[in-house]
Specification:
The complex is a heterodimer of chains A (123) and B (376). Chain A is α+β, with helices and mostly antiparallel strands. Chain A has one domain: OB fold (Dihydrolipoamide Acetyltransferase, E2P) (Beta Barrel), CATH 2.40.50. Chain A has 4 helices and 9 strands; from the N terminus they run βββαβββββααβα. Chain A has a 6-stranded antiparallel sheet. A 3-stranded antiparallel sheet of chain A has the order 4-6-7. In chain A, a hairpin with a 2-residue loop joins strand 2 and strand 3 (18-23). The longest helix of chain A has 9 residues, at 113-121. Chain A is globular and about 35 Å long. Classes of the chains: A alpha+beta (123), B alpha+beta (376).
Chain lengths: 123, 376
Amino acid sequence: MTTYFTREHEWIKVDGDTATVGITDHAQEALGDIVFTEVPEAGKQLAKGQEAAVVESVKAASDVYSPVSGEVIEGNQAVVDDSSLVNSDPEGEGWFFKIRMGDPGELDGMMDEGAYRDWVKTL
Amino acid sequence: MSDHDDQASGAEPQRLALDSWHRNHGGRMVEFAGYWMPVQFEGIMAEHLWTRENAGLFDVSHMGQLYLKGPEVDVALETLLPGEFQGLTDRKLRYSLLLDDSGGIIDDLMATRRGEDFYLVVNGATKHNDIEVMRQALPAGIYVDHMTSQALLALQGPKAADILEIIVPGVSGLGFMEGDAFHAFGHPLWISRSGYTGEDGFEISIPAVAAEALADALVADDRVKPIGLGARDSLRLEAGLPLYGHDLDRKTTPVMAGLTFAIQKRRRAEGGFPGAPRILAELEEGPVQKRVGFDVEGRQPVREGARVLDGEGNEVGKITSGGFSPSLQRPIAMGYVAAGLAEPGTGLKLEQRGKLFDGTVAPMPFVPHRYHRKGA
């Protein structure tokens, strides 16, 4: 399994043609206390860059865009039930959705973990 | 991921006296009202709850501190503000509103009588225009001093009085909306028992050079933590207090905003303040729109800009502030609705980014005030 990262602070963990998507630790830290999360339903078709989920902290609302195109397999009910999971375990249990990728070529050029962590330090 | 409302930035923000103090205490700095200010330290939720339980230290030095001197300042102030100032007792505060000629709100403020003079605290983002308005409208003999070398710190929360009493003996003798001169750290302080969180607390005007010494002395007490703008906003929203530029502006009047307590009896009888014909008519007949609170169904916050709709989908108002209430653990909001729909309990729809929410008009404050009223 390989994990990719975007400049929009999402991570994509790839297993075959399935990808799990969430927001990074840096992103949850920047958002602060998360009080509401909305994730896409299974079966939803997403284009790359399309709004896929909503995350709201005490102070602001943000959209999470799908980093790849495909069909949603599962939205994570656990983060809907308890949004603080996104703060406490953003790159683990706090994932947002799983998607069956339509075009794995979309991953080309995304950062790996080391490149992402180095880049975040420059922000 | 992207924020729904990215703020555009203009000129380089100014630095407050406590700028490096905030950074050293882990403050996350953002641009606000032309200054770098801490939006949060350990987190908005924790800071908010800490203030409601203990005591929070807020730097509000971006706000404008003005000192008005000259013959009959009280009479002159009454030509700009709808409050009773001639009859205001020495060292008492009064909440008031700077009005334009049509009764629209230019700013909201606190005015304290200090002998024959008046000390005003106005909002940071509006202070320069306020000063301009006052200097133009007040008689030539009245001098408006912008006290730019003063910092302003607020200590808010149920433990504030016990804590500040140790550093500034005698301060706990003040009642809510009273101020007085004190001395500490080799400097004169002006302290009032006031604030904008709904809690008991104090606002301390101190020479900027001594602000760090005061902040250090306060946080040395483990009941005090520094609090950022984020929690300041959620605290005042729970307290039902309007924020200028959001819940109040030139399009709102004191009557629409439910601030008629700021127009005392003699002023209602005599008028003589900007926009008096309209405001007195609104007092008589009721305003077209009213500021109200909303309980919001579900967990998702409904924020400023959301539309308020009636049962038929007609737009009947706007949300002007909204967020997640840390104390109540649910979303709350404030906004304006047509006067006929302003009764608590009225069910309305709130529309945000194409999604409808159920809202119910709610009495404010959402969280009861706990001011220290003398004799109470």
